[in-house]
Amino acid sequence: MSGKRALCALLLWLPLPSAQAKERITWAVFDWAPVYILQNPDAVQVAQLNDGTGDRLVKLLQHSLPQYEHRMVNMVPGRIFAELRNGTHLCYASSLANADRLAYSVMTAAGIAPPVQVVLRQDTLRAHPQWRDGVDLAQLFQDRSLLGNYPAARSFGDEIDTLLRSPSNRNMKPMAVVSQSSNLFRMMQMGRLDYTLEYPQVLVYQQSKGQAPADLVSVPIKNAPPFLGSHVACSKNDWGRKVIVDIDAAMQKIAAQPSYLQALEAWVPPNEMALRHKDYENFVRQRSSRSMILSQ
């Protein structure tokens, strides 16, 4: 982290002067286009967020929660969850829910996304043409002829997370020093890696911007759920429990606005959207009609 960025991050944790009545929500973001499209990594104003799915959601929440002051801080995923675990007054608007994260954070539903897929080179797919119709992850993770990596702080849903932790996983290993898929995409291009896991819209967006090799493709995972749910996560303490109630109420109102569905669908590839548009509409109806706070 640069000295300037470290100073900005430090200032975000300092208490507000007593003359300011508004309580602060600090939103964690990181460079993960098209979820967060960061043009200025040192920006702290939410208004400086871009057009990513997470960007749009945080801006909608800022508008719907004027009783709070909103700031953002750029940090890698590992640090986001470390800060939540430590009880820092912090929220993150794009978290999957799993047993580990629910032990130290409170959550409410924020949206849905297509399930993660296996990303690999075209030549690897040509050697395994049957994967076009879906990959059996349990079998893939046992194939010693292939090497897979993923960012250590990522979660891919309970079922995949369980497979990753299984002793039968022979070739898919976490990388603590990697926080962004773009690094893994480049490793595949150089032949140092055979595959990784990522959302299809992340690969498509980064390829469209020249940030990922053009010869990478994504293929579905067999028996994957139709979508994965994303959540706003805040630290599990008195502050977080109060804030998540307000965020949940705001989410119900936001979900009734056309801009919410537009934000969720904005970067989903057309072939995925054709399969899942009804899922998105059903989720939006649920989100706008009731509280969706997970157990506190």
Question: How would you sum up this structure, described in words?
Answer:
The chain has helices at residues 3-13, 53-64, 77-85, 99-102, 122-127, 137-140, 158-165, 181-189, 200-208, 238-254, 258-265, 270-289; strands at residues 23-29, 68-74, 91-95, 105-113, 117-121, 148-151, 172-175, 195-198, 216-219, 228-235. By secondary structure, it is an alpha/beta fold. It has two domains: 3-113 and 229-289, D-Maltodextrin-Binding Protein, domain 2 (3-Layer(aba) Sandwich); 117-219, D-Maltodextrin-Binding Protein, domain 2 (3-Layer(aba) Sandwich), CATH 3.40.190.10. The strands form three sheets. A five-stranded mixed beta sheet has the order 2-1-3-10-4, sandwiched between helices. It has a three-stranded antiparallel beta sheet with strand order 8-5-9. Helix 2 runs antiparallel to helix 11 and helix 11 (258-265) packs antiparallel against helix 12. Residues 1-21 form the signal peptide. Keywords: Signal.
For the structure shown, list the relevant keywords.
3-stranded antiparallel sheet; 5-stranded mixed sheet; 12 helices; D-Maltodextrin-Binding Protein, domain 2; 296 residues; signal; alpha/beta
